[in-house]
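__Record contents__

***
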Amino acid sequence: MSASPAPSLPTRIDGDPDRVALVLPGVGYSPARPLLHFASSVLARHGWTVQELWWRIPDAFAEFTTEQRIAWVERQVGAAVDAEGGACRLLVGKSLGSLAAGLAADRALPAAWLTPVLTLDHVAHALGRATAPTLLIGGSADRLWDRSVADATGHQVLELPAADHGLELPHDPTGSIDLLRTAVARLDTFIGGLPPGGGTAA
């Protein structure tokens, strides 16, 4: 069976054509989910053009090796960056999207990684060599987050106490909303603090 087509939803918000931000989803965390929905809203508020990616995960993805998963994500993100003709100047990614951290480092792209997979050496090493402005946001109860690894990258870090991989508190919706507000506010500060050109062009 082939992968299901992506939902027919708007995927682009037009803003400054010379400042394009790509929004990268997780495995099952689409751009319509709260963190990425509000990330797109923050980007639009700061005048960015926003291009959301909607993964079409291959059926065999669960059997992919780590290297195959990294290669697959880098192909998707690399193609999307190239499609912007040099105007892509920022990546905002959730979980699986952080497997493109090496691409961001290679192209000197600023990035905000929401629940990056810090338990993967590839991601940790890529973040360690990234020179462009980078923000890492994770939860202390997320098994894929490692605060010591995040701090060792030298980048901006926000850890949300007791938050899981969705940056939520299990069985506490109002508390989860408070965490969402904190994460979005920090993302807003990060994006607002980028250089006028959005950082180094791709």
User: Anything to note?
Assistant: The mean pLDDT is 93. Helices lie at 34-45, 66-83, 101-106, 121-129, 147-152, 173-192.
